[in-house]
Amino acid sequence: MKTNSSVHEDDSAVHNDFSTTIGALILSLVFLLGVPGNFFIVWSILARIKRRSVTTLLILNLALADGFIMILTIFFIIYLAKQRWIFGEPMCKALFYLCNTNMYASIFLITLMSVHRMVAVLFPRKLSYLVTRKMVRRIIVGMWMLVMVIAIPSLVFRKVIEVSDDETNHTKWICAPNHSLPRHVRFQYAFETVSGFILPYAVIITCYVLILKRLRQTKFRRHVRSEKLILAIVVMFGLFWLPYHVINMVQVAAEWYPEDSDTRKILDDIHSDSRAVTSALAFISSCANPVLYTFAGKSYIKKNGFAFMAKLFEGTSSEQTENKKSRNMNKIGVRSNDSNNTLPTCEQTVTHQVS
To answer: Closest Cα to residue 106, out of 228, 311, 314, 284?
Structure first.
């Protein structure tokens, strides 16, 4: 039933046996690791940490978003395995909408972590004034409202479509993009890549350039290690989402060429053959963080057992208390003779104690 430009891309996720098989295997692994891993993080923070710092609140929201979307991967595993959609149109729209919401939420939360790190390093004495837990909670609520709005295109441009099955000579139903005009394709995927990858990463890179520049201006360069955990989260997210956004741009580029051109056919083949695998790789980023935290907190495992994750995050829980102490010391006239010497003390109040 290929009647418009949307249908050329409609079976991009399920028409290639090799691509769908690899995608299903990746998603199965992601499900097995991601669901228990992310909810273990949630349990560690809610049950083991009484005073939750800004960074801990952001990590909690990231784990909730990733854990929830990991549960939904079971539907996509079945979709790829059967190569047909059996859950109806409401679920088709809802599941892809939730996936896009999670993508935006993840990168925005990581961006907020990076901005918080930058403020902590550049303005350590003012951190408790500039960044409070109450303000961060409001920002997080606002962020969730924002991502639910900007993910709407994935809800609008998605529907269940009937297509022919070349192997059986019958028709089948698939959950596919539904773009009636080429400009709809260009808008959705360009908007998704710019707002969900390029702009946030520009902010993240700017933050870390300023952080490293500040740290290198001091003689306490060993504190660069304190940024490694969040930096690892940033890099991991970028590595697994980059292929997905590259394919987005390939699909956008294809829409600029006539349908009968050789370049258009090549670009269409690239994005249709790669979509299932790159989408599955993107899901890996949601189960990668628990693995990173486990490696970061491995020195606590033997001593603290299942509480090791909470121990890893404990360093961030004292930041408000320590900042208040620092502020009170300033009020009674305690001053450092060397301005550079203030950085380690303030750094210790706002960074992870990662061994």
So the answer is: 284
pLDDT tens profile 212-231:
888 777 654 544 444 677 77
Q: How far apart are CA 102 and CA 72, in angstroms?
A: 11
Domains in the chain with CATH codes = 5-350 (1.20.1070.10)
- Biggest alpha carbon distance in the chain? 84
Q: Which residues contact 233 (CB under 8 A, 6 or more apart)?
A: 110, 113, 289, 292
Say if residue 162's pLDDT is above 90: no
Give 231-275 pLDDT, tens digit per residue: 788 888 889 999 999 999 999 999 898 888 889 899 988 888 888
Does the pTM of the predicted model rise above 0.90?
A: no
How many other CB atoms sit within 10 Å of the CB of residue 209?
11
- Which one, of 297, 293, 352, lies nearest residue 120 by Cα? 352
DSSP codes of every residue in 259-285 = TTSHHHHHHHHHHHHHHHHHHHHHHHH
Per-residue pLDDT reduced to its tens digit, 299-314:
667 676 666 676 666 6
